[in-house]
Amino acid sequence: MLEDLSIKDFALIDQASLEFGEGFTVLSGETGAGKSLLIGALSFLLGGKAGVEQIRTGAHESVVSGTFFLGKTPQTVRELSPEDEPSNAFEWLNLHGIEAEDSRVLLRRVIRENGKSGAWIGSTPVTRSDLAEFSSFLIDIHGQHEHQSLMKVSEHRKFLDSYAALTERVAEFTSLYSELVAKRKLLDELNSDDRDRAQKIDFLTFAVKEISEAKLKPNEDIELDEEEKKLSSFEKLYSDVEQLNSALSGGEGEAVVSMLKKLRVIADSAASSDKSLQKLSERLDSAFYELSDIADEYKSYEQGLVFDPARLAEVQERQTLIYNLKKKYAFSVSAPLAEVISYCEKAKSRLEELDGSSNKKDALEKEIAELGKKVYVEAKKISEARKAAAQKMSAGVVSVLSALGMNGTRFSVQVAEKSGTDVTQKCGPYGIDDIEFLISANPGQPLQPLAKIASGGELSRVMLSLKTILCQSDSTGESTVGTMIFDEIDTGIGGEVAVSIGSHLKKLAKNRQVLCITHLASIAVYADNQIKIEKAVSDGMTQTHVHGISGEERVSEIARMLSGDTASAESLEHARSMLAKFGGIN
């Protein structure tokens, strides 16, 4: 459950601090006041995309933080390995070595004007993807236009699989199916025209031979470049070293080492007269020995310098060979030499696949037959689970729709088997089924595709029904999020339908925290708490203010939502009567 939210310099919000209670909370305000900014700030906190445009004009960064109560700490928390999937917030925190304090965590996120962002869970810095993954256990946000996803038939399968707790199982099936497709693709290649296969073998053989004969070494190109540079600039290098040797130890009188040698004698004499000069004398000794050593090394280096035009030609010839190999087998001539070496290894592996194809084909055909059977059997099992869940899901949606003012509506989750003659045709990456939601909103009318006939108001209510039964589908309650947010679920509805939605949200909030942005008073009056969003201009700057309201201020806001009138006695009395009737407020 979200307990508090702090926002600073986010979009039009200068600063806001809010506390959230249990039950049903509505967020209201005039059109354009910035109601969705609050949801935007929360989405940002939960790992949504961040951009510098979210920073309030004149500020250097946006900061959003929030405290979440995770519920009662489980008696035991599973010890997971990095490969395991956590099933609740406590398991996720345990897996990442983060501790909750009194079953609470503080999330914090920052976006700075240079585009860099940071995120923390407690005092631990995390990535945006980690933050999003963890927050998925805390909050479910139903976006303003999310009900439009019901217009996409491909999304219907996801709803059913989520309801039936099949999401992970289907993901495993997708991996198995992909393996089957990959093996069939390889078999098709092996069955391809012999001439085409022979050409591939010839090309790969030539490539392997050419690269292997070059006997390339890792980073050889870098080493050759350094050596070529040294050999090409031999005259300048020799001249520089010669000058250094002359200055360090050349002429007896002017050479640095000779001069330091004389200075050591004088410094020793001075130190014998004044002990305070002893350390300076010792430092001069150290400088003498260090420079003497340097002079010896430069002299040795000069004696070893030999111009070798034959080696230079050899290096340049080798560079040309590597350049040509990169041009053929690497992404570009400036690519690392490792790309050429890697190409050679991949070519060898490909040759092994293409050579002796008859034996490989026999083995591959056997693997495909076994894998195909496994895929089909698993697809049938998933299909059976879907069909069983589809009946319960259909009944659940109808029950909720009835409570939302759609009495007599029929809703069906249709699970139909794909057509085809073999496994890959009958199955897709998600199984053997074509899944679609059907609806009949009027008695006597046949079931028809939801995506084709439902109105905006009907889609909103169907989505709310789906959200409701998805929350109810987990009997243990361990993986169900504690907070649900609806951003203008009331799109396209009004009157008695709005009253039924308000009542439904109130009931839904008995077991979890529900937040809802609405412009309808008939929904807002059901709320346990109400937050008002207002836009104002201060010192020439537009700002959005957010604060909780109660008492007469709430009565005034409900009156505004009813008729746009916050002053007349009739509007205020109407607002009080609605709050008393539906919200239990006297």
Tell me what the structure shows.
- The structure is a single chain.
- With 586 residues, this protein is an alpha/beta fold.
- Helix content is 53%, strand content 17%.
- A hairpin with a 7-residue loop joins strand 10 and strand 11.
- Helix 13 (357-403) crosses helix 16 (456-472) and helix 19 packs across helix 20 (569-582).
- The protein is flat and about 110 Å long.
- The model is unreliable at 475-479 (pLDDT under 50).
- The total of helices stands at 20
Low-confidence stretches: 475-479
Class of the domain at 1-20 and 33-138 and 528-547, according to the CATH hierarchy?
A: Alpha Beta
Largest sheet: 6 strands, antiparallel
- Second CATH tier, the architecture of the domain at 1-20 and 33-138 and 528-547: 3-Layer(aba) Sandwich
Trace the largest sheet across and list its strands.
Answer: 2-1-4-5-6-7
Mean pLDDT: 86
CATH superfamily of the domain at 1-20 and 33-138 and 528-547: P-loop containing nucleotide triphosphate hydrolases
Q: Give the beta-strand count.
A: 15
Categorize the overall geometry.
Answer: flat
Helix content: 40-55%
User: Structural class given helices, strands, pairing?
Assistant: alpha/beta
Observed structural traits:
586 residues, 15 strands, six-stranded mixed sheet, alpha/beta, six-stranded antiparallel sheet, Rossmann fold, single chain
Give a brief outline of the structure.
The chain contains 20 helices and 15 strands. It is α/β, with parallel strands linked by helices and 586 residues long.
